[in-house]
Amino acid sequence: MEMVIALAIGVLFGSGIWLILRPRTFQVIMGFMLMSYAVNLFIFIMGRLWINRPPLTLGPGAPDPVAYADPLPQALVLTAIVIGFATTALYLVLMIGARGITGTDHVDGEEPEQ
Amino acid sequence: MSLGWTQHLILVPVVLPLLCGALLIPVNEKRHQLKFIVNLASVLGLLVTAITLVWLTDEGWPDGIGVYLMANWVAPFGIVFLADRLSTLMLLFTALLAGAVLCYSMRSWSRIGVHFHSLFQFLLMGLNGAFLTHDLFNLFVFFEVMLAASYGLLLHGYNPARLRASLHYIAVNLAASLLFLIGVALIYAATGTLNMADLARRLSHISGDGLTLAQIGMTVLALAFLAKSAMWPLGFWLPATYAAASPPVAAMFVLLTKVGIYIVLRLWLLIFANEPPGAAGFDALLWGGLATIAFAAVGMLASETPARQAAYAAMVSSGILLAIIGFGQSSLVPAALFYMLGSTLAIAAFMLLIELVERINRPGAAMLALTMEAFAIDERPEQPVGEGIPATLAFLGLAFIACALIIAGLPPLNGFVAKFSILHGLLHPGPGQTVSPGAMTLIALILVSGLAAIISLLRFGVRTFWAAGVLKPPPLHVTEVAPIGLLLLFSGGFVVQAGPVFEYLHRTADGLQRPAQYIERVLEEPVVPNPLSP
After folding, report:
1. Residue numbers of the domain that contains B228
2. B69 DSSP β-pair partners
């Protein structure tokens, strides 16, 4: 299972890096989205991979925390998703604005000379 | 037992701008005055809080440390806010710069777009939070708050150049934020904690694979900070961005590079406290810093516009600071802090001054180049005419000379004192040690970068003030002149009061050199007991 998830993150991140090096803003933003998915998955598995362990819920009978999955990365990844989403949305707005003002979707705001 | 009111002050620098910024969003853009007054009141509040905190950390609290446990969670589990001499010094410094920049932007720059005041407040919130928090993930959150506000501010006064610069700036920072997250995740995986004090304690107990993982995490995290603090080759985005930003925003951005430096200083001294100077982490910083100085000095000579020169000057100062931190010699830290305060204020003042100087040649050009956002602006901001101050040319010339002297590090202003004390520290590495080749390179580069700065600034000054023929004094307003004068006065004040300032900075550096005390204070901070339980 480690191999599968490591490959998944690697493929996502690699595709993201390739895309952000492309000259069109749409490709760049897709690259950032793929990279942020990869990072979110990465944070998530930093609490280690567990199967069949419920999240930590404290209640009567005070269970042993060792038997539960680490809840902190789950909380972190939620925050990271929200922040990543907000900044990506901001970038998207800027991208549309740039397209409107400069008339091109090249990241430099002008078409390269042929 | 409950918390004293003084301890709640630690939270004020974050909460106050948050509330004011939120409050200003629904206020109509036509009510400039009201928005400005709320903003100014908040900045003054921050200034008073910062002064109180500086006094408390210096004299009031034991060990010069005040700890605030968020939501009363005990230390390694909850988020910790901590005020010590270094962080309160940064708070004071931020509030000072913010006050000056705000006054400067009052007359025209804050009116050319929407939500300037809210974004300004959120920027302050992010900056202050980054200085106060001692939790890595919370630091990420405050960094994002700061960056999101800076994206908005960079776009303020929307024109194609700013748009293009923003596209690159945001892309670079998004990538750096992702690196930040990877670093934080790796550190958590290796050590199981995000609290900086707990992290420093645990790092000395782990070994083998865990240590390797933590070191990789640190490296990735450092890449994110070093991209912010513009270390070569990660700082390629800086000159274009700073040159494109509107002057008040560029002045605030000079401080943003120093946030990266602040974090590096704090984490490096804390985490690598057990390692000898010359370990891999220190060396990378030293040589990276040296490369930054060399690159920025050449860039400064090559740049045509003063805004780019100022941007490269900010890079030179980042490079010098990084190299000194990487040098790992504790006696250099006060000199580095002194240099940071003086040079940042002077570069920020220079960023503001550039616009006024350019009015000599092209009156009103900066304003006309802007695309107005028609829905937000009731009228064009009137050109400053009629109510100018006398002797404008004399003021511009003197202010320019003062900036140039401080940036280049020539006597009699504080740039000289700062560089002199750095060189003195480098040449006296301590009993029984010889001056290393790294130190010699650093000394040479500091001197050469000063020379590059004076050549390029002189070229600009001669062309503007002497070679331009008969100059027509540009109309300046007192709200534009006063902030520059104030910044230079503070920067110059350091040289008059260099003794007390250095003593304070020595105490600051002493606090940083005692990580054990800091770890103990954070982890043993008692929680407030539940008032309902017997």
Report:
1. 5-374+390-523
2. B80
Cα B181 to Cα A67, B337, B408, distances in angstroms? 27, 28, 37
> How many angstroms separate the CA of residue B152 from the nearest CA in chain A?
9
Asked if residue B533 belongs to a domain, the reply is no
A28 in B contact zone (CB under 8 Å): yes
- Is-contact A68 A55, C-beta < 8 A? yes
Q: Is residue B529 part of a domain?
A: no
Output the CATH code of domain A2-50+68-102: 1.10.287
Does residue B379 fall inside a structural domain? no
Instruction: Examine residue B76 and say whether the peptide bond preceding it is cis (omega within 30 degrees of 0).
Output: no
Distance from the A96 Cα atom to the nearest Cα atom in chain B, whole angstroms: 11
d(CA B4, CA B68): 11
pLDDT per residue, tens digit, chain B (534 aa), is 466 778 888 899 999 999 999 999 888 878 888 888 999 999 999 999 999 999 888 887 887 888 888 888 887 888 889 888 899 999 999 999 999 999 988 877 877 778 889 999 999 999 999 999 989 999 999 999 999 999 989 888 777 888 888 888 999 999 999 999 999 999 998 888 888 888 888 888 888 888 888 888 888 888 888 888 888 888 888 888 888 888 889 999 999 989 989 998 888 777 776 665 556 667 788 888 999 999 999 999 998 888 888 999 999 999 999 998 888 777 888 889 999 988 899 899 999 888 888 877 665 554 544 444 433 444 445 454 444 556 777 888 888 888 888 888 887 788 888 888 888 888 887 777 777 888 888 889 999 999 999 999 888 888 887 776 666 777 777 888 888 888 888 887 788 888 888 888 888 888 888 888 888 888 888 888 777 765
The encoded tokens of residue B241 equal: 């961005």
Q: In this complex, which of B163, B177, B178 lies closest to A97 when CB atoms are compared?
A: B163
| Residue A109 to residue B151, Cβ atoms within 8 A | no
Is residue B419 domain-resident?
yes
A15 has a chain B CB within 8 A of its CB = no
The ipTM, to two decimals, is 0.86
- Quote the number of domains for chain B: 1
Domain map (residue ranges) of chain A: 2-50+68-102
Contact B175 A35 (CB under 8 A): yes
Q: Which two tokens stand for residue B275?
A: 């390692």
CA of A63 vs chain B CAs: smallest distance (Å):
19
Q: Is A8 in the B-facing interface, judged by CB distances under 8 Å? A: no
- Residue B107 near residue B480 (C-beta atoms within 8 A): yes
Which of B163, B168, B188 lies nearest to residue A73, judging by beta carbons? Answer: B188
Q: How far is Cα B180 from Cα B169, in angstroms, rounded to an integer?
A: 16
